[in-house]
Automatic annotation (TrEMBL):
The alpha subunit is responsible for the aldol cleavage of indoleglycerol phosphate to indole and glyceraldehyde 3-phosphate. PANTHER family: TRYPTOPHAN SYNTHASE ALPHA CHAIN, CHLOROPLASTIC, TRYPTOPHAN SYNTHASE, ALPHA CHAIN. CDD domains: Tryptophan_synthase_alpha. Signal peptide: none annotated. HAMAP family: Trp_synth_alpha. It comes from Desulfobacter latus. The lineage of its organism: Bacteria, Pseudomonadati, Thermodesulfobacteriota, Desulfobacteria, Desulfobacterales. GO terms for cellular component: cytosol. Belongs to the TrpA family. InterPro entries: Aldolase_TIM, RibuloseP-bd_barrel, Trp_synthase_alpha_AS, Trp_synthase_suA. NCBIfam families: trpA. This is Tryptophan synthase alpha chain.
Amino acid sequence: MTETNTRTPAPAFLETYIREQRKKKAILLMTHIVMGYPSFDACFEIVRQMVDAGVDLMELQIPFSEPMADGPVILKANQAALDSGATVEKCFEFAQKVSDRFDIPFLFMTYGNILYKYGMDAFAARMSEIGVKGAIVPDLPPEEANDYLSAMKKHDLSAVFIFSPETSDQRMKMIDTHATGFIYCLARKGVTGKETQFSSDMGNYLARCQKSTRLPTAVGFGVKEKADIDFLMGKADIAVVGSQTIREVAQNGVNATGPFIRSLIE
């Protein structure tokens, strides 16, 4: 375990972007894709349709063989992408392509092993070079993230950390001192793609999240329809839709992406 710097980081591009967008919208929408699923060409079309439909920012997941935070839908997409030949290098190339083409921020979502194998500073430098604005690494808590945080700060990138319903107020405040960009609030404990109850209990939890951070908040894990997003208005800055978009593609094809996203926004 390494000692971390407790100084509050300065605002990065991502936080500023979110706050500016929130002046125009009651809540923002962030979506999630697994790069290479069902193919890189299909992913590009999915991204295009999402951006055209009004998505505000997007997670690009680098496939990993043991995605511990992900449920069966995203797990299956990770494995299919790896089986089809997705690599970290191909993901960097894809991320650069969409960052160059589309005028929204993109973040990486992946797991710590990939960063350690690539090299923390080299990974962050490459992110900066290709225009990716930040990262979410669920298995890398602040206590073990000194090298990661240093590399992200050096390259002016956002290191997004996670709150869960099990996180104490004290720990939330500690996490907040290290996070940049926004805080990702899990709607419940467990993995992605399961059923989530949008209730007064969740409202109380999200109020606790907002009280514990100086950053915008995003809510994911189980957000899948417009009613869920409507519930989150006033309780969070960003709604995150992940597994449901992958289900739509798996069940109805790539061209179902745009209509599905519009159904969430309109």
